[in-house]
Design goal:
- This protein is of the alpha/beta class.
- Helix content is about 50%, strand content about 10%.
- Strand 5, helix 4 and strand 6 form a beta-alpha-beta unit.
């Protein structure tokens, strides 16, 4: 919801249908347009000027490419998936149909997600909640297991029990698999430890001596206990070989992505959002936005205004990330990227840029070596005892005021 004044002094009100109803504003003929947007999975926002409806705006949050595959994998593990959202039911059901979600709880206000979890838990089921926003923090803390997306807000991360390092929902599938294998390993170790002790403690205590003359030497008993510990530890180390059922570093196949987005239908390419291209390229989201601002990359923009990245954008970002790691300046990166995309380039141009950069690195190294040599000489001259005289302070005090900035 946003309220304000236009430059002309008119009252402007922007928000969902709930806001319009609260303010007593009739959507009129735009109500049908709003319902159509909801059926297409868009969230409708009305704009009113001076108490009269002026426009309806459809916005949407693109579904992550791997969401369908992740939900299908959760189903394969015997889990049910529900979505709690503040969107209208029509919008939520359209998204659920696209991704294969089992149950939808729609129209939930920010403070209503905890109550929604209690409703879902009413049948005695355990609840794992996945979220990334500030409004998700109470629900993450209230769920049996709170799973925060690593690219989300700090509040959500602090409230969760588990934090996924990437923004890929396939990490949820991997987390469940690792947890299941870990608990199975713990049960195996407990069974072995209890069984081992139940079998050997009576022998060590001499219970069978009156009947069979059987005793356990203390040396053998100590060895048996050590063997038990070795077995438990070796069994636990098998978890190092657990493989993630879903590879988060790979882009999902077309069959896993679900229906094509509007942009991909136009271009015929597999497009991903900014979070996924960040995972694929290893470049942080903030850096990607900065590269876009300065024109190093130019993602597509869908009709709803969201960025859509192609495979070549991922290659560009990985290229830029490597160049920046080698210390190339932004302008050098721009030139190198142009040469990289130019089939008629000459390697001499690339070598020239690399040579100039190498010369700057050598100059910096020489400066650092000079600084190190001077500092090492001063440290050698400093006795480092309780006397007040100190060559290091004396050298710093000899600097002229004009040779350095005055600190305040």
């Amino acid at each position: 919801m946003a309220c304000g004044l236009s430059p002309g002094g008119a009252d402007v009100l922007v928000g969902a249908d709930r806001l319009m109803q609260r303010e007593g504003i009739d959507p009129g003929a735009l109500a049908e347009a709003e319902a159509d947007l909801a059926r297409r999975g868009r969230t409708a926002l009305f704009a009113a000027i001076d108490g009269r409806i002026a426009a309806v705006i459809g916005v949407s949050d693109p579904v992550k490419p791997a969401s369908r595959a992740a939900i299908a994998a959760l189903h394969a593990q015997g889990l049910k998936v529900a979505m709690i959202t503040g969107d209208k039911r029509e919008t939520a059901e359209a998204i659920a149909a696209e991704t294969g979600i089992d149950q939808v709880v729609a129209g939930v206000l920010p403070d209503g997600k905890v109550a929604a979890l209690d409703t879902l838990r009413g049948s005695g089921q355990k609840i794992a909640f996945v979220g990334d926003g500030i409004n998700d923090a109470p629900a993450l803390a209230h769920a049996d297991v709170g799973i925060a997306i690593g690219t989300g807000t700090d509040v959500a991360i602090e409230s969760a029990d588990v934090v996924l390092m990437s923004g890929d929902l396939r990490g949820v599938v991997n987390a469940f698999e690792v947890s299941r294998r870990t608990m199975s390993n713990i049960r195996q170790n407990l069974f072995w430890a209890f069984g081992y002790n139940v079998a050997l403690i009576p022998v060590a205590a001499g219970v069978f001596y009156p009947l069979f003359g059987l005793l356990l030497s203390p040396v053998l008993a100590a060895g048996a206990m050590a063997l038990s510990s070795v077995f438990v530890l070796t069994n636990a180390l098998r978890l190092r070989r657990v493989e993630a059922p879903m590879d988060e570093s790979k882009a999902p196949r077309a069959a896993e992505r679900g229906p094509a987005t509007e942009t991909s239908r136009i271009t015929g390419e597999s497009d991903v959002n900014i979070g996924d291209v960040s995972t694929l390229s290893g470049v942080p989201v903030k850096t990607i936005r900065y590269y876009e601002d300065i024109g190093l990359i130019k993602p597509l923009r869908s009709t709803n205004g969201y960025r859509s990245f192609r495979e070549q954008d991922s290659h560009k970002l990985a290229f830029l990330g490597r160049a920046r790691a080698l210390g190339f300046s932004i302008e050098d990166c721009r030139t190198l990227l142009e040469l990289y995309e130019d089939d008629s380039r000459e390697s001499a141009d690339v070598k020239r840029i690399a040579g100039e950069h190498l010369a700057r690195i050598d100059e910096k190294i020489a400066q650092l070596q000079s600084m190190r040599s001077t500092l090492a000489h001063l440290m050698d001259a400093c006795a480092g005892d309780h006397r007040p005289d100190c060559p290091i302070l004396d050298d710093l005090g000899q600097s002229s005021p004009g040779s350095s900035s005055t600190m305040r």
